[in-house]
Request: fold
Amino acid sequence: MRSQEHIHNNMSAVRASDSKIEQKLAKALWNANFRYRKQYSKLPGKPDFVLIKQKIAIFCDSHFWHGYKWKKKEFEHKKNKQFWRKKIERTIQRDREVNQELKRREWKVIRFWEHEIKENIEKCIRKVKEEIKK
Reply:
């Protein structure tokens, strides 16, 4: 069983930006000749990447923090169940609110799950290209 200190150290090591999935997507976007802004604070939700000219906001959502398959996984937490349920469900709700606000401002929103970036980065780049063509 992991100690509280071990859990605390792991959680404090989580980065708010420039995670491995963001780095991988950044490199792929750059290699595909997309020029972007990172952590764009002028838009709601501070998108991980923004293609200003095309009005596209791109988010890299980790499974844990953004609740991938949440209805199945919400009961898997061993400790602080109420805390984690509340925290992750609020993140899911905030993601919906951010999407709605960006769409209201006529921005296109693309959200990639962690596994999509890790397993098939080319497909992610194709999705961005398709959004531009629309």
Notes: The chain has a mean pLDDT of 85. DSSP finds seven helices and four strands in the chain. The beta strands are 37-38, 49-51, 56-61, 108-113.
